[in-house]
Write a structure and sequence with these properties.
It contains 6 helices and 11 strands. The termini are far apart.
């Protein structure tokens, strides 16, 4: 798939897929979307001493970076194990041009950003003390064959239903739910009524939340 770099309204960059007419992030702001959906309405709502995060999908690595940024603000007396699935990894040139580390004050973030993207696929890597990343190159539907610990937090960040409707239907959500711990949280930028109904059918408590800039609503769902 041919991709090009675009700058979003908050100054952070995203990738645009020409064939699908689809951005990896909101054109209103890639960074602010990630922080609102996956940190404010995700990570900050989970209080486990060991947090196992499952991300669909890794994409540009921005969600990993904002998660590490938030982790560094804490007393770091907990551990994060971050598992990220991706079928179409981005290339070295795209990593360089996206340069997300430039949006963070921490001078170590350039090294952290590079370490995230240089981490071998299929192998757990300690990015910083207490934060472990395992990138897995696969189709999302291969999730059923992947051995994971019980997941406390899911970043459901698939491409939109307009271009990949099968990723927003019951079979994939069932696979995700099977990997989650009771009281685990799934957070996503989507607010589709069909998604809410699917999650409720799978015994999730679903709540509509205020969406990121440019989007009225999003979804949080707790596995009961």
């Amino acid at each position: 798939m041919k991709r090009e770099i675009k700058t979003t309204n908050d100054g952070s960059k995203t990738l645009f897929i020409n064939d699908l007419n689809e951005n990896y992030h909101s054109h209103h702001g890639a960074l602010q979307e990630a922080e609102h959906v996956f940190i404010k309405n995700g990570l900050n709502l989970v209080n486990d001493c060991e947090i196992n995060i499952l991300e669909l999908g890794f994409g540009t690595g921005l969600n990993v970076l904002v998660t590490i940024n938030e982790y560094l603000k804490t007393d770091k007396n907990h551990v994060i194990n971050y598992f990220s699935l991706e079928k179409y990894p981005i290339n070295e040139s795209e990593v360089k041009d996206l340069a997300y580390f430039e949006h963070f004050d921490n001078p170590e973030f350039k090294n952290i950003y590079q370490k995230i993207h240089l981490a071998d696929w299929e192998k757990p890597v300690e990015i910083i003390s207490g934060f472990n990343l395992k990138k897995i190159e696969c189709d999302f539907f291969d999730l059923k064959n992947i051995n994971l610990p019980e997941i406390n937090l899911v970043y459901f960040d698939c491409f939109g239903a307009r271009v990949q409707p099968d990723l927003w239907e019951k079979p994939l959500f069932e696979l995700v739910a099977d990997k989650m711990a009771i009281n685990g949280l799934l957070t996503t930028y989507s607010s589709k009524g069909s998604v809410r109904r699917i999650l409720q059918e799978l015994n999730f408590q679903v709540e509509k939340k205020q969406g990121p800039p440019g989007k009225r609503e999003m979804i949080n769902a707790i596995k009961l």
